[in-house]
Amino acid sequence: MLVLAFDTATDVATSALVDDGRVLGERVGVARSLLDDVRELLDEAGVSKSSLGALVVGTGPGSFTSTRIGLAVARGLGLALDIPAAGVSTLTALGSAEPGTYPVVDARRSEVFVAGPRAVSPDDVALDPGTLCVGSGALRYRSTFERMGAVVPPDDDGRHLPHARLHAALATDFGPVDRIEPIYVRLPDAEAALR
């Protein structure tokens, strides 16, 4: 089955075209260029959007706006093409790159998103010495995690990206695209301000 997968929850958006587990193409960009990346993936693979069998979208946690962009694109494509979709947590995808990996996404406000999912201060993350930390939060708070004895790969290491091919490999629960819900962990800033 030909699957289009993407994740826009972090500052870096990833997309991939996967056919029965074989990666046909990948893109790394930003959320606002997602549709251009999708078009390029399809063009370079020589397939039309009508050939897609399913979608996989990253559900966060991460940036509220970027996560919404990914879900909106998934809903638009899923409904227009009448194909099933699945959602996969950005943390789960990051953590699947290598056994024993601890995914950490920058949550802004001096916090990180970690398994749970929950938003916590980097100083409140309990790690065993030698734990491999990856993701935008691990990069931003490298000194904190390294002080705890964690290992944070170099900034340009690909394990810090929530690669869409990982989302495609993890997706199992395909169904109507409109049932996929984002993982926000916290209220959006605008909603919090209203309260």
- Backbone structural class: alpha/beta
Summarize the helix and strand pattern as letters: EEEHEHEHEEEEEHHHH
Beta-strand residue fraction: 15-25%
Estimated helix fraction = 25-40%
The CATH architecture designation of the largest domain is 2-Layer Sandwich
Distance between the termini: 45 Å
Provide the CATH topology of the largest domain.
Nucleotidyltransferase, domain 5
CATH homologous superfamily descriptor of the largest domain: ATPase, nucleotide binding domain
* Whole-number mean pLDDT: 95
What count of structural domains?
A: 2
Largest sheet: 5 strands, mixed
Contiguous runs where pLDDT drops below 50 for at least 5 residues: none
* Rg calc: 17 Å
Number of distinct helices: 7
Give the beta-strand count: 10
What is the approximate shape? globular
Oligomer: single chain
Q: Order of strands across the biggest sheet?
A: 3-2-1-4-5
What would CATH call the class of the largest domain? Alpha Beta
What do you see in this structure?
The strands form three sheets. Strands 3-2-1-4-5 form a five-stranded mixed sheet, sandwiched between helices. The radius of gyration is 17 Å and the shape is globular. The protein is built from seven helices and ten strands. 31% of the residues lie in helices and 24% in strands. It folds into two domains: 122 residues, Nucleotidyltransferase, domain 5; 68 residues, no CATH class. It is an alpha/beta fold.
